[in-house]
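User: Here's a structure from my thesis project, written as structure tokens. My advisor, Dr. K., wants to see whether a designed sequence matches the one we expressed. Can you design one independently, without my sequence as a hint?
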């Protein structure tokens, strides 16, 4: 489990593995794969406040499978595992 707590409206996610075989049955090498846009929520930030000082609730929860924007966020490596810290706004939707 990751030992990092995002701040504000940020979310710590772990990208899910991309398909290793194309639709036509061709095995793709790692260099040909695109970064997966599907990820799992690992940890939520401390939250944010609106203009009136009310707490902004997170739309996602830990364990949700989400679609994220391709190039958003900051990559971090914790204990050999790669994670991504993104703003909740960079989450495009919840899968499933």
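Assistant: Designed independently from the structure alone:
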């Amino acid at each position: 489990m990751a030992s990092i707590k995002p701040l504000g409206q940020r979310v710590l996610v772990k990208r899910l593995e991309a398909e290793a075989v194309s639709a036509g049955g061709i095995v793709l090498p790692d260099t040909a794969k695109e970064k997966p846009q599907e990820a799992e929520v690992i940890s939520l930030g401390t939250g944010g406040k609106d203009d009136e000082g009310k707490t902004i609730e997170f739309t996602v929860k830990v364990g949700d499978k989400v679609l994220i924007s391709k190039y958003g966020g900051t990559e971090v490596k914790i204990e050999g595992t790669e994670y991504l810290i993104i703003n909740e706004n960079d989450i495009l939707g919840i899968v499933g």
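When you compare it with your expressed construct, this may help: The mean pLDDT is 85.
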